[in-house]
TrEMBL record:
Species name: Erythrobacter rubeus
Identification of the protein by name: SDR family oxidoreductase
Key words, A-Z: Oxidoreductase
Family: Belongs to the short-chain dehydrogenases/reductases (SDR) family.
A Pfam family annotated for this UniProt entry: adh_short_C2
């Protein structure tokens, strides 16, 4: 028996066409899960679709969705259910970088733009996904997994990143509240506080930042994308059923350094 066979399961991954999200999608597809990617960039969606179709036996669907717009979330959820009939796991992964402004230089527009994607987006994604999960539970098919991409910055301080840190701290609070509220339906909620991974966002940062981070990380390296595959499969599988409300650092020990 394959302990981590996800055949017949369906996972949604917001922002799953690149970076951390695509790494997690690879693992889910390899484990047999059908995957719906909700992301904004049509070209990146098409590339991700081709790659995922080539490595797994499961079905993959990509949908244009900006999680800052609730109507797009609602439409993506409807299209996902039309294709797969159910959602068992939701990886609320879509995010954006902060404005790069220090506290004295913050603007209302900059703050709101970060919060719209990083905090409101996961909340509204969970709103529509859990409506479906709760309806399934009422019909005798309880259970569901909510997994949010948070950040170590939600529990640490970094210069000129207070808006980003606050948005990720909001995800941690959302996770704990959702876990408590939804446990009666056998829906779990957890957040992964990722440390330094090489992504499109970090590639745009000052190269000195990467060098500084690697010196500060006890394991002395960025996170490996291959490791994301098994991580995602574990959280989507029944083996994580008794873990809920947790905000787990995945950072090579960065948060203890």
């Amino acid at each position: 028996m394959d302990l981590f066979d996800l055949t017949g399961r369906v996972a949604v991954i917001t922002g799953g066409n690149g970076g951390l999200g695509l790494g997690m999608a690879r693992g889910l597809v390899k484990a047999g899960a059908n995957v719906a990617i909700w992301a904004r960039n049509e070209e990146k969606n098409a590339k991700a679709l081709l790659e995922l179709q080539s490595i797994g036996r499961a079905e993959v669907k990509t949908l244009i969705c900006d999680v800052a717009e609730e109507t797009q979330i609602e439409d993506a959820m409807g299209a996902t259910l039309d294709t797969f009939g159910r959602v068992d796991a939701c990886f609320a992964n879509a995010g954006r970088s902060g404005s790069g402004a220090g506290v004295p230089d913050m603007t209302e527009a900059g703050w709101d733009a970060v919060m719209a994607v990083n905090a409101r987006g996961p909340a509204l994604t969970y709103k529509h996904v859990t409506r479906h999960m709760i309806e399934r539970a009422k019909n005798g098919d309880p259970g569901g997994k909510l997994i949010a991409t948070s950040s170590g910055q939600s529990i640490m301080g970094v210069n000129r990143s207070s808006d980003y840190a606050a948005s990720k701290a909001a995800i941690n609070g959302l996770t704990r509240g959702a876990a408590f509220e939804l446990a009666r339906h056998k829906i779990t909620a957890n957040a992964l506080l990722f440390g330094y991974y090489e992504t499109d966002i970090t590639a745009a940062a000052d190269p000195k930042f990467a060098a500084w981070m690697e010196k500060r990380i006890p394991l002395r390296r960025p996170g490996d994308h291959e490791g994301l595959e098994g991580l995602a499969v574990f959280w989507a599988s029944p083996h994580s059923d008794y873990i809920t409300g947790q905000c787990l650092p995945v950072d090579g020990g960065l948060c203890i350094s």
